[in-house]
């Protein structure tokens, strides 16, 4: 019997592990920058296992292997990864370190790539293995790279200036803020490793990562406001040098590790969540004094300035018109038959491209018909492509990257007649969406404290969804941006601050049948409440496209909720209507009619 592709790759890896004197290896989805979305060269887990999600880890031992995913990927991992080769482990039940501690043989040497894990993970996994009589070992050569013979090269796209008309603040001003922060805390330098942080601090963008306009790069910012920027020489142009100015020294990306030796004797801030273990090790070896602090650009990057907010509103209005045109097209094309998940996703892209301003999509469009809609982070392919059929639900989660903003919107549409169950669940999701959209809350409130608002109506029926309710969104940067999030798991999280942008996206997923999600982006804003005894915050909804009235059980909505929906659709007409004409405009007017 011939081995499958992934079975052969697993066998090759095990042979390489033997050659390196290892008894196992840990394979995360990650790159050297701890990025969520990574370049093709770093897609080691997908190459090994076939898993195409954005979060997961595999462990390969000599006689068994396991793949670890969270609740978002419970269905997807079983569809994509051969259960004969890998056992499926939910991270909510068991961590990678725990599994290793239970399953690694006594005396085993378990390899890991120090450029793909945080220092905290290494310490935890090492401690757990030590208790079992095994050892965690940093490899000098990643064994997957040794057997992945057609591994893509690192991308060579250029790093480009991001104009002040979109950035809103000069890079020198941002670096000066970081320099003051360093001085106030008695530190000499900060190592910046997150790609979106480098892009934001230096007002640069790139295309090294699909859907995320960043460039593979590192930076060290010093207390005097100068900086060292590590980027491949072929990515650097004269306009970029002029943009960066003489306070920024350029270095080859491949010299970054050696360049850390120059921080010997210095007090250096390093983000333990965003910097890999190898960076800590090199700084330790160099004799630097490491202070574990969050990247000082994270919070100001998340708190959008007036220019970024204005740009986001413009991007949302443009994107909302494209989505509305798509929904109009779908209302005609889907009942006529012949459309599929792939054809619908392609059509949606044409409407965004027709704006003339689309740089990229902000992630792979989730185009899920019928049962595929129940896969939270579904990625359609030729093998999984389903037809869009009558009397079903179609879920489409998509977004665009524009110079002035990043968008992310989900709509669930009834094709034909929805069932009573579909309408009840859709309405419960909508009620949760409205509860979050209209909440008022004091300064200091975290997203974790608000998460229950979106789930309460589903909980009343004993159902839920296995993902967070909201994530931060960048400004022509990552569609998933921290530190803010609206989720109960993983701690209460970061206090919400004016200028932060989050998604509002409760959902419901019935395995094998249908999925529902309603997502808009919202802006945290100061509220002026007469009689308030403390400063209060709320959300301004930024996303505008119709919510399908055909899936709403109107009797389940309160007067307050019906009023919100009518006011929202009035705003959709105000924002999107002037961009449409003819049949599309007539359809929009009908889709935004009062709910009654």
From TrEMBL:
Pfam families reported in the protein's UniProt record: Creatinase_N, Creatinase_N_2, Peptidase_M24, Peptidase_M24_C
Q: Name one GO molecular function term.
A: aminopeptidase activity
Q: Which CDD domains match?
A: APP
**Peptidase M24 C-terminal domain ranges (all copies):** 535-595
Which keywords belong to this entry?
Aminopeptidase, Hydrolase, Metal-binding, Protease
- Domain named Peptidase M24 is located at 313-526
Gene3D superfamilies found in the cross-reference section: Creatinase/methionine aminopeptidase superfamily, Creatinase/prolidase N-terminal domain
What sequence ranges are listed for the domain Creatinase N-terminal? Answer: 9-141
The cross-references to PANTHER family, in alphabetical order and at most eight, read: XAA-PRO AMINOPEPTIDASE 1
What's this protein's name?
A: Xaa-Pro aminopeptidase
The taxonomy runs: Bacteria, Pseudomonadati, Pseudomonadota, Alphaproteobacteria, Sphingomonadales
């Amino acid at each position: 019997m011939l081995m499958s592709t992934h079975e052969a790759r697993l066998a090759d890896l095990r042979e390489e592990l033997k050659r390196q004197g290892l008894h196992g290896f840990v394979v995360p989805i990650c790159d050297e920058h701890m990025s969520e979305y990574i370049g093709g060269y770093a897609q080691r887990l997908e190459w090994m296992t076939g898993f195409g999600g954005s979060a997961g880890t595999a462990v390969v031992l000599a006689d068994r292997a396991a793949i670890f995913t969270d609740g978002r990927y419970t269905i997807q991992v079983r569809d994509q990864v051969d259960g004969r080769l890998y056992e499926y482990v939910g991270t909510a039940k068991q961590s990678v370190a725990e599994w290793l501690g239970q399953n690694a043989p006594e005396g085993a040497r378990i390899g890991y790539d120090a450029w793909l894990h945080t220092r905290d993970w290494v310490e935890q996994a090492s401690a757990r293995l030590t208790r079992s009589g095994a050892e965690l070992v940093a490899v000098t050569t990643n064994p997957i790279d040794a057997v992945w013979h057609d591994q893509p090269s690192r991308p060579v796209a250029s790093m480009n200036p991001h104009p002040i008309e979109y950035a809103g603040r000069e890079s020198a001003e941002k670096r000066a803020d970081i320099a003051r922060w360093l001085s106030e805390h008695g530190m000499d330098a900060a190592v910046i490793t997150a790609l979106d942080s480098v892009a934001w601090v230096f007002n640069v963008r790139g295309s090294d990562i699909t859907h995320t306009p960043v460039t593979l790069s590192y930076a060290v910012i010093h207390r005097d406001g100068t900086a060292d920027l590590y980027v491949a020489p072929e990515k650097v142009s004269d306009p970029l040098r002029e943009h960066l100015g003489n306070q920024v020294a350029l270095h080859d990306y491949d010299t970054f590790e050696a360049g850390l030796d120059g921080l010997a004797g210095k007090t250096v801030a390093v983000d333990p969540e965003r910097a890999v273990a190898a960076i800590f090790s090199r700084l330790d070896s160099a004799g630097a004094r490491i202070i574990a602090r969050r990247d000082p650009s994270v919070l100001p990057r998340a708190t959008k300035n007036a220019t970024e907010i204005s740009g986001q509103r413009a991007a949302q209005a443009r994107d909302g018109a494209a989505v509305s045109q798509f929904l109009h097209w779908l209302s005609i094309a889907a009942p006529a038959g012949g459309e599929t998940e792939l054809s619908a996703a392609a059509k949606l892209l044409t409407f965004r491209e027709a704006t003339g301003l689309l740089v990229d999509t902000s992630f792979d469009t989730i185009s899920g018909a019928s049962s595929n809609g129940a896969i939270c982070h579904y990625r359609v392919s030729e093998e999984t492509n389903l037809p869009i059929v009558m009397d079903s639900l179609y879920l489409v989660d998509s977004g665009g990257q524009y110079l002035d903003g990043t968008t992310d919107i989900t709509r669930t549409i009834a094709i034909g007649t929805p069932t009573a169950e579909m309408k009840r669940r859709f309405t419960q999701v909508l009620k949760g969406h409205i509860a979050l959209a209209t909440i008022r809350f004091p300064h200091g409130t975290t997203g974790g404290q608000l998460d229950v608002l979106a789930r309460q109506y589903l909980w009343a029926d004993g159902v839920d969804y296995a993902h967070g309710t909201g994530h931060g969104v960048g400004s022509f940067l990552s569609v998933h941006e921290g530190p803010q999030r609206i989720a109960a798991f993983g701690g209460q999280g970061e206090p919400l601050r004016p200028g932060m942008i989050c998604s509002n996206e409760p959902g419901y997923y019935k395995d094998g049948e249908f999925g529902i999600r309603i997502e808009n982006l919202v802006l945290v804003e100061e509220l002026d409440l007469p009689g308030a005894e403390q400063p209060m915050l709320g959300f301004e909804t930024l996303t505008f496209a119709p919510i399908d009235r055909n899936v709403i059980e109107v009797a389940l909505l309160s007067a307050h909720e019906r009023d919100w929906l009518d006011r929202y659709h009035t705003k959709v007409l105000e924002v999107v209507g002037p961009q449409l004409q003819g049949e599309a405009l007539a359809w929009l007017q009908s889709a935004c009619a009062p709910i009654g």
